[in-house]
Amino acid sequence: MTDLFGFLNCDKPPGITSRDVVNVVQRRLRPAKIKVGHCGTLDPLAEGVLVIGVGAAVRLVPYVQQQPKQYRGKFRLGASSETGDLEKGFTEHPDLPTPSLDQLQSARQSLIGLIQQVPPAYSAIWVDGQRAYERVRRGEDVEMPSRQVMIHDLQIVSMNYPEFELDIVCGSGTYIRTLGIDLARAVGSTAVMTHLKRTGVGDFSIESAVTIDQLRDAPLEPLLFPPIRAVSHLPRLVVDEDGSQRLANGLCVEGTPSGDVNEQSDVAAVNEVGELRAILRRKSRGWCPYRVFPLPT
To answer: Which helix (H) or strand (E) holds 247?
Structure first.
């Protein structure tokens, strides 16, 4: 079991933390000392795709986090809450205008692409050395710095006032509740997020996710996705058996990767059957190993 190397794709249920899911996997692997780590937190109230790296795949977590994420979010117009979701209830604002679907459709265009977003104060972001939500819960006023996030796509799936539903494809660091609130503000209202489901992260989809009960009870090895899934967005360099061994020994290889490559690119080295062998970076000696992974046993 100590050579497990891959990713689990869990459909996290609401009501538990991302760390709780990691703990389930770690308990299954004891007494073996195998690293386990998730590839991006889902809030306890949210559900959906939670990708978990197992073994050496933990070193690929940053590459999973680079990939677009897809969400379905439901919101209630004309309402607000301290947290932006239903964690602390919400307040209705009946005097606010009732926006139309056409107004929302027009406003969403300004929220696609690189945008500035102010994260909610009830978030795990570090502010002056402390989690923002911890400071807020102590009664402190916390000024959240804005930051740039990428919204690849934003679609209004349905609207039946006061409810509307969004389908979002975005980059890391995006707060979906803030996105829905910003859309509502753009049409003169406000909103609270009532439900959130992550439906995909890169090549990991909700359709291929397993339940938390399967992680608790089923054999884990058959549930693992190969590590190459973490780097499907990277250029690739195919290496033969000799090249694979050179990389295992920390030596550089030559070749022309497929895909869009520049001097700063990370490149996935794969063997002739498509298994991930290393992450490469360009140096004067050729394509050199930055991270090397176990050879097949």
So the answer is: helix 241-248
| CA dihedral over 174, 176, 178, 181, signed as positive or negative | positive
43 is a catalytic site residue: yes
- 3-state helix, strand, coil split of the chain in percent (to 5) is 25, 35, 40
Residue with tokens 């301290």: 82
Q: Give pTM, 2 decimals.
A: 0.91
pLDDT in tens, the chain (297 residues): 558 999 999 999 999 999 999 999 999 999 989 999 999 989 889 999 999 999 999 999 999 999 999 999 999 999 999 888 888 889 999 999 999 999 999 999 999 999 999 887 666 666 667 776 677 677 677 777 889 999 999 999 999 999 999 999 999 999 999 999 999 999 999 999 999 999 999 999 999 999 999 999 999 999 999 999 999 999 999 999 999 999 999 999 999 999 888 888 899 999 999 999 999 999 998 999 999 998 655
Active site residue: 3, 11, 20, 43, which one?
43
Residue ranges and CATH numbers for the domains of the chain are 5-67+203-227 (3.30.2350.10), 69-200 (3.30.2350.10), 234-292 (2.30.130.10)
